[in-house]
Amino acid sequence: MSDQKVKLANILYAPIISEKSSNAADQNNQFVFKVQKTATKLQIKKAVELMFGVKVESVRVLNVKGKIKRFGRALGKRSDWKKAYVKLQSGHNIELATA
Questions:
Q1: What processes in GO biological process is this protein linked to (predicted)?
Q2: Contact at 8 Å (CB) between 32 and 24?
């Protein structure tokens, strides 16, 4: 594999499986992924098309701020991360259970 394909493969960390993401997949053909904090929309689009062999219509991203939590007496902060909502073109689908 070329270096560019390896970089694209490292952009997607994991799919996010929740009630909200399942509803988005059923109603709007959207899938939700945890991605690198430095990833752009174009990189995310190319990574999904490469990994799953589908056509992407649009990508929306949002930065999720880490929560401040207590660990005993000390205050700690969870890491910030980035979430991507990927909308597929009609006729394409991702089966996350088998992927």
A1: translation
A2: yes
Q: How far apart are CA 35 and CA 38, in angstroms?
A: 8
Per-residue pLDDT of the chain (99 residues; tens, 9 = 90+): 688 888 888 999 999 999 999 999 999 999 999 999 999 999 999 999 999 999 999 999 999 999 999 989 999 999 999 999 999 999 888 887 665
Instruction: Please name every residue paired with 35 in a beta bridge, in sequence order, or none if there are none.
Output: 12, 82
Question: Around Cβ 96, how many Cβ atoms within 10 Å?
Answer: 17
**Domain residue spans in the chain?**
3-88
The reported pTM is 0.87
Burial class (CB in 10 A: 0-12, 13-18, 19+), 15: middle
Is the separation of the CB atoms in 9 and 48 below 8 Å? no
